[in-house]
Amino acid sequence: MALGKVKVFTGVSPIDVNEELDETSAGVSSLSFDDPHPGRRTYFKLKSEFGGARITSERRLPLQGSMNFRDMGGYATTDGRYIKWGLLYRSEELIGLTEADRLYLQHCGLKMICDYRAEYEAELKPNPPIGDAQQFGIPIEVKSPRHRSRMNYMDMITMDKLHLLGPTGEMLTIANQRYVSDFTKSFATLFELLLTPGNLPMVQHCAAGKDRTGFGSAIVLLALGVPEQTIMEDYLLTNTYREEADLQTLALLKPKLTHEEDWDVLWAVMQARREYLQAAFDEIHIRYGDIDRYLEEAVGLTGSNRVQLQDMLLTDI
């Protein structure tokens, strides 16, 4: 569909994007300009001369101490609406945030930090304070049948125990299945927090921001009516944003690996792979038949609650 000329408006709040920035000529597909609000999150409204409009922003937040802190706004739902920008975030651990990063997030109005890490993980790398944002722990710890002890990658390499992770990808496939089977109360708490007035904007996070956070983000997007394919694409973005850091980590660890197959095992554990999240989707269908029954019977999101959540988080532009 032809858009004709498009006016670009900007602002530091997704509900107040009215500062006119520029106008494109008909047929122009891109526009470059300096950051209009350095140090602040910027939102844009694109308004066609024919009357249509869309609000957008950067997917990944430009933080120095987190490479995987991102906004789930802008995704289209099956009923033609869009997730509002600036309300639903997902991230890796937050301990690396700089003072400037924390101020940036404070300006974003962050109200709730939902932490899926186990208690010992949170104690080792505590979240820094971010303005007056509340911190709420929903500890989720999944151990594979072969891995019952609390060991990180370095411990397992040092002790030559990477085989405890099982065949490539097995541990995370099992983990995603168990998010569905064993942690219904945990994810019910997530929806309670989302529906509680004053808790938005909210960020969900774990250690790498891909497994526990990946599933928690996925079921929120499902509840809002986002198609599974879009959700999978969002899940896999972790590989794009963390690739450089993950490759650096592997390069540091490589001299310590004693078995050739250990590289593949570590890489599989560090990545977000389609089959991991798909295992969770499949488990939902096996146990509940469809996502609607899962949301209502497992995590307690009633039909009226779901409408309430959609009214809060969806927009027509």
From TrEMBL:
SUPFAM superfamilies xrefs: (Phosphotyrosine protein) phosphatases II (SSF52799)
InterPro entries on file: Prot-tyrosine_phosphatase-like (IPR029021), Tyr/Ser_Pase_IphP-type (IPR026893)
Domain of life of the native organism: Bacteria
Pfam families from the UniProt entry: Y_phosphatase3 (PF13350)
Family named by the database record: Belongs to the protein-tyrosine phosphatase family.
PANTHER family with a match to the protein in the record: TYROSINE SPECIFIC PROTEIN PHOSPHATASES DOMAIN-CONTAINING PROTEIN, TYROSINE-PROTEIN PHOSPHATASE
Name of this chain's protein: Tyrosine-protein phosphatase
Organism expressing this protein natively: Paenibacillus baimaensis
UniProt lineage: Bacteria, Bacillati, Bacillota, Bacilli, Bacillales
